[in-house]
Write a structure and sequence with these properties.
Layout (H helix, E strand, L loop, with lengths): L3 E2 L2 E2 L5 H4 L8 H10 L13 H14 L3 H18 L2 H7 L14 H4 L18
Antiparallel strand pairs: 1-2
């Protein structure tokens, strides 16, 4: 039976990889959770007993913010920055990179200038740049 934690059905991959499918759990946190639950990182979620799944579920849902709560918090942080008019809020509002990346050459997809073939979307050489 597949393990269901935080509303996510874990895929039948090694536990340290499968926990990464939960929003807010990366490789480092997955390793920490497995250590706290005293489980083998290579065991697969389908091989876990009901007690082990419950132990994992308790650790993840009670000690960490994951899935819906974390997504809500992130969206509220972005909304707050937009409302106070901070630089980061303005970048979010304009759909541009927020963390100081250059925009002259990179971030085409964020700006909406996707080039599907060579030369499309570019200024012609006769045009002034």
């Amino acid at each position: 039976m597949p393990a269901r934690i935080a509303g996510i059905i874990l895929p039948n991959k090694p536990l340290k990889v499968a926990l990464g499918y939960i929003y807010g759990v990366g490789p480092t946190l997955a390793k920490l959770i497995i250590t706290k639950a005293e489980l083998d990182p290579q065991i697969r979620p389908n091989d876990l007993s009901e007690a082990e799944v419950n132990r994992l579920r308790d650790i993840i849902e009670k000690q960490y913010k994951v899935e819906g709560d974390l997504r809500r918090e992130v969206l509220l942080n972005i909304k707050r920055k937009r409302e106070i008019g901070s630089y980061q809020g303005m970048r979010h509002f304009r759909n541009l990179p927020v963390r100081g990346q250059r925009t002259k050459t990179n971030s085409r997809t964020v700006r909406g200038n996707t080039r599907r073939t060579m030369g499309s979307g570019r200024k012609s050489s006769a045009e002034k740049t």
